[in-house]
């Protein structure tokens, strides 16, 4: 079983790359963003609560996110592994994920960060916002707030996973195929 955490700032290409990786390595893709959007669209209690945070460009609290991810893992007991996209985002979430996976006799195999310059990512999100309908991709101030949140809360995960020799950085600029190849090289050499 292989469990990969794919992370990077909003707009870095996590969702796009996850689509390729899940098929290539037969992984169950767990995107917190997709799960939140589904719940928001369907006006579930979790969705309504998550929406208040997302609309401000803030991270959804750990307790909501952790419970949601545990439920999704439980729904896929026969998976060959998981590709966590957008989770964990904080040290508390990383610790909770480690404990949960340990209770299933599993662990994180690797974390891979897609790295790209903020200015390039802002432009990507503003372009995506023109067609996606996502409010958080249409306002540059909200986008930059998301990056500040990332720098304060998510970037410390790099050190957490480096200490475990599970952190890999990949250049997130280039064609989709080039980035997929870079990610595949990391995974195939684990």
Features:
kinase; ATP binding; ATP-binding; alpha/beta; 190 residues; EC 2.7.4.3; 5 strands; globular; single chain; Rossmann fold; 14% strand; five-stranded parallel β-sheet
Protein described:
Its EC number is 2.7.4.3. Pathway: Purine metabolism; AMP biosynthesis via salvage pathway; AMP from ADP: step 1/1. Keywords: ATP-binding, Cytoplasm, Kinase, Nucleotide biosynthesis, Nucleotide-binding, Transferase. The protein is built from nine helices and five strands. The protein has a five-stranded parallel β-sheet, with helices on both faces. Helix 2 crosses helix 3. It is globular, with a radius of gyration of 16 Å. The model has no long low-confidence stretch (mean pLDDT 90).
| Overall number of domains | 1
What is the CATH homologous superfamily assignment? P-loop containing nucleotide triphosphate hydrolases
The helical percent reads 55-70%
Order of helices and strands: EHEHHHEHEHHHEH
Tell me about the largest β-sheet: 5 strands, parallel
- Beta-sheet strand percentage? 5-15%
CATH architecture classification: 3-Layer(aba) Sandwich
Poorly predicted ranges (pLDDT <50, ≥5 residues)? none
Gross morphology is globular
In CATH, what is the class? Alpha Beta
Question: How many strands appear in the DSSP assignment?
Answer: 5
Alpha-carbon distance between the termini? 12 Å
The radius of gyration is: 16 Å
Strand order, largest beta sheet: 2-3-1-4-5
Which fold name is given in CATH as the topology?
Rossmann fold
Mean pLDDT: 90
Which structural category fits the helices and strands?
alpha/beta
Count every helix, treating DSSP H or I runs of 4 or more residues as helices. Answer: 9
């Amino acid at each position: 079983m292989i469990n990969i955490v794919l992370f990077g700032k909003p707009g870095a290409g996590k969702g796009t790359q996850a689509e390729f990786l899940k098929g290539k390595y037969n992984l169950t893709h767990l995107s917190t963003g997709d799960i939140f959007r589904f719940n928001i669209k369907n006006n579930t209690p979790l969705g309504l609560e998550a929406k208040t945070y997302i609309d401000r460009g803030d991270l959804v609290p750990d307790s909501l996110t952790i419970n949601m991810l545990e439920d999704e893992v439980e729904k896929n007991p026969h998976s060959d592994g998981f590709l966590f996209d957008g989770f964990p985002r904080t040290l508390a979430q990383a610790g909770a994920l480690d404990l949960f996976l340990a209770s299933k006799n599993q662990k994180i195999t690797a974390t891979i960060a897609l790295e790209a310059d903020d200015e390039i990512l802002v432009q990507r999100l503003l372009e995506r916002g023109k067609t996606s309908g996502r409010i958080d991709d249409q306002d540059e101030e909200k986008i930059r707030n998301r990056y500040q949140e990332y720098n304060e809360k998510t970037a410390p995960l790099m050190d957490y996973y480096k200490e475990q020799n599970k952190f890999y950085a990949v250049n997130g600029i280039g064609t989709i195929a080039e980035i997929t190849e870079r990610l595949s090289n990391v995974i195939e050499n684990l």
